[in-house]
Amino acid sequence: MNDCRYLTFALGKGRLARKTLELFEQIGITCEEMKDKDSRKLIFVNEELKLRFFLAKGPDVPTYVEYGAADIGVVGRDTILEENRNVYEVLDLGFGKCRMCVCGPREARDLLLHHERIRVASKYPHIAREYFYNKKHQTVDIIKLNGSVELGPLVKLSDVIVDIVETGGTLRENGLEVLEEICPLSARMIVNPVSMQMEKERIKDLIYRLRSQIV
Ligand code: PRP
Question: Measuring from atom 20 of ligand 1, which residue has the nearest CA?
Fold first, then answer.
């Protein structure tokens, strides 16, 4: 292992990173440095395995991977679709399962059926555009929000929203419902295309070992 270069991982901060590290531990990849919650370090190294890890904001993970600043990234499929970067998606890690949906009040169902020019609020304007323009061939106005998107229809900013639904609790508590399902989501591993060529054996071995742990 001494003569190989470091393989660098960018992990989406928070629950995703914690779950990823749990999965890595199952195949013998640990990073003790990262477990120290008081540490202000940004990059963590496993010298023995020649691995480096850093935590990044989810939407930045595909950027680091596209430019080769990280060889490998772990991030939600929602972010991969929204960022639309030049990376290979190589593995579904099986956690963080949820759905990207069009949601709104029940009355908005008709607006979708009749292809009306409606307003769509979303943290995911690219996914919303792809879905309405390219899949449904419906012209809509897309309004970018940064969170609490369910507010959109409640305060009449928009007719519907495009957002993540996990348990459905947020929708229920606000009198909204799933109107159309866009796609299933979960945590995915992505790889820089050049790294995939240069470090083929190590990355293929990693994917193979991870796959054996995923239920
Ligand atoms: C996400 C998503 C929904 C909610 C869905 O929001 O945008 O609002 O979770 O989960 P549920 O179906 O289990 O209720 P998040 O908590 O990430 O915060 P945000 O609204 O600020 O984006």
Answer: 148
- Going by alpha carbons, the residue nearest to atom 2 of ligand 1 is 164
Find the Cα–Cα–Cα–Cα dihedral 110, 113, 115, 121, rounded to 10°.
Answer: 60
Q: For residue range 163-201, what is the model confidence (pLDDT) as tens digits? A: 999 999 999 999 999 999 999 999 999 999 999 999 999
Kindly give the number of the ligand 1 atom that is closest to the alpha carbon of 169.
14
From the alpha carbon of 166, which atom of ligand 1 is closest? 12
Retrieve residue 57's tokens.
Answer: 């904001």
- CA–CA–CA angle 45, 49, 55 (5° rounding): 35
What is residue 121's DSSP assignment?
Answer: E
Q: Is any atom of ligand 1 closer than 6 Å to the C-beta of 167?
A: yes
**Res 2: pLDDT:** 53
Nearest to 183 by CA among 57, 62, 76: 76
Cα(62) to centroid(ligand 1), Å: 21
Burial 54-79 (b: 16+ CB within 10 A, else e): bbbebbbbbbbbbeeebbbbbbbbbb
- Are the C-beta atoms of residues 163 and 123 closer than 8 Å to each other? yes
